[in-house]
Amino acid sequence: MKKRRKNERKDTAKKVAAGLTVGAAIGAAAGVLLAPKSGQETREDTNKADYGVSYPPQRQMRSSFQIHVI
Fold first, then answer.
1. pLDDT of residue 45
2. Residue 66 — left, alpha, or beta (φ > 0 → left; ψ -120 to 50 → alpha)?
3. What are the boundaries of each domain within the chain?
4. Looking only at Cα atoms, what is the longest distance across the chain?
5. What pLDDT, on the 0 to 100 scale, is given for residue 36?
6. Please, which residues bridge with residue 67 across strands?
7. Phi/psi class of residue 65: alpha, beta or left (left: φ > 0; alpha: ψ in -120 to 50)?
8. In angstroms, how far is CA 6 from the centroid of its own chain?
9. Tens of pLDDT along 13-57?
10. Tell me, what's the pLDDT at 19?
């Protein structure tokens, strides 16, 4: 009885691992195929990004800033 249950758990774990692998591959392929911009354009945009930091206008204190979580 215990051996049967152990085999069932192994089979379930294998199925879950296979499902995750297939899902990751499909997700990666979809991301590449459905990307709105080319890789070069995306890298340029990323290099120009300010990484979510917005600084206050000149008339406010320069020492305060806000970080927005993306």
1. 74
2. beta
3. 2-67
4. 75
5. 84
6. 53
7. beta
8. 34
9. 999 999 999 999 999 999 888 888 887 887 787 777 656 655 555
10. 96
Angle at 34 between CA 31 and CA 35, to 5 degrees: 75
Closest CA to 7 of 50, 15, 49, 36: 15
Residue 34 CA: distances (Å) to CA of 20, 31, 54: 21, 5, 30
DSSP output for 19-53 = HHHHHHHHHHHHHHHT-SS-HHHHHHHHHH--TTE
Residue 68 has pLDDT above 90, yes or no: no
65 vs 20 pLDDT, higher one: 20
- Distance separating alpha carbons of residues 8 and 63, to the nearest angstrom: 60
User: Do residues 65 and 55 make contact, with C-beta atoms less than 8 angstroms apart?
Assistant: yes
How far apart CA 11 and CA 8 sit, in angstroms, is 5
